[in-house]
Amino acid sequence: MDEFAFRKGCTYGTVLVDVGVEAGRVVDVLPDRTSETFAAWLKDHPGAEIICRDRATAYTKAVREAAPNARSRR
User: Fold this and answer.
1) Is 3 left (phi over 0), alpha (psi -120 to 50) or beta?
2) How far apart are CA 38 and CA 59, in angstroms?
3) Residues 6+ away with beta carbon under 8 Å from 70
4) What is this structure's pTM?
5) Distance from C-alpha of 68 to C-alpha of 63, rounded to nearest angstrom
6) Which residues contact 48 (CB under 8 A, 6 or more apart)?
7) What is the C-alpha to C-alpha distance for residues 1 and 24, in angstroms, rounded to an integer?
8) 3 close to 14: Cβ distance less than 8 angstroms
9) Selection from 60, 62, 68, 2 nearest residue 36 by Cα
10) pLDDT for residue 74 is more than 90
């Protein structure tokens, strides 16, 4: 997962990519980069075992809240 700019400097989203069996396949695109949006997505899609992310605090918070048993890698 990583954030990207829909419009640089104005609007950012989050792209979720499968790095497992189907490596490189885009799983979903979230409309923003908030912890609430990502946590809601994780709750709606249980079973994540490993989450590769950057150091963004929002992503860390979402993983701790919605997928506490997943291993989180930066």
Assistant:
1) beta
2) 7
3) 48, 49, 50, 51, 63
4) 0.85
5) 6
6) 42, 67, 70
7) 11
8) yes
9) 62
10) no
d(CA 69, CA 12): 27
Tokens of 45: 């899609």
pLDDT tens per residue, range 3-59:
889 888 889 999 999 887 767 889 999 999 999 999 999 999 998 888 988 778 899
Q: Which residues contact 54 (CB under 8 A, 6 or more apart)?
A: 2, 3, 74
| Contact (CB, 8 A) for 24 and 18 | yes
As given in the structure block, the two tokens for residue 43 are: 């709750």
| Strand 2-7 relative to strand 71-73, pairing | unpaired
